[in-house]
Fold this sequence. Notes:
Strand content: 15-25%
Helix content: 40-55%
Largest sheet: 4 strands, parallel
Strand order of the largest sheet: 2-1-3-4
Structural class: alpha/beta
Distance between the termini: 24 Å
Low-confidence stretches: none
Shape: globular
Amino acid sequence: MTIHVTLFSTCLVDLFQPNVGIATVELLEKLGCKIDFPPAQICCGQPAYNSGYVHEAKPAMIHLLETFQHAEYIVTPSGSCALMLKEYEHVFQDDPKWHAIAKQVASKTYELTQFIVLVLGVTKIDTSLPGAAVFHTSCHMTRLLGAKEEPKLLLNNVDNLTIQSLTGQSQCCGFGGTFSVKMGDISAEMVKEKVEHIKQANTDYLIGADCGCLMNIGGRLSREQQAIEVLHIAEVLNRGMEG
């Protein structure tokens, strides 16, 4: 039976890292899914919501609920944005109409690795990446969404890849969406510390599952002229399946 997946690409993927969106689609298709991409999708409203502008964020949220309510599964290569879609249920708890729809949407929304492991039942993908890597556990995905074991399980089963331990792995990289803008000096010190730990790991790759974190850490690595390749987990899992 073919599983129909509606892709929620997210703003960062759409605007800055389309390669992650392409890798996600190719990977899911090769795992037997049929992909739908509603062009009407927009920002999930997280920047405004996290800044306290709940009322102002609601029109965008309602638009996304209308866009995704008929999906069989909603999959996104972002733990942060998956969490935001699930948060709609709380946002609209006093609105019977949209609360019901938000609850339905939340129940079928998955971060990419959660979907692969928990829905498709796949724990090993035929892919290879020679070298050593560290995995960055982004805050929203790990602490709030609870997607802790799925990415680790998939990465540990990548052929020829050694996952190194990372000092302070659970520490925030300093991105935090609007936090990195409002608290730029603090954010810069946080990502500086994160990069120091990554360098100490003597690694070839930094792998993560949220583009915001990868952009933030990758920017610091680039400014320090570090030859560490930054990859989204979708790119790693799709890499050996090309062709």
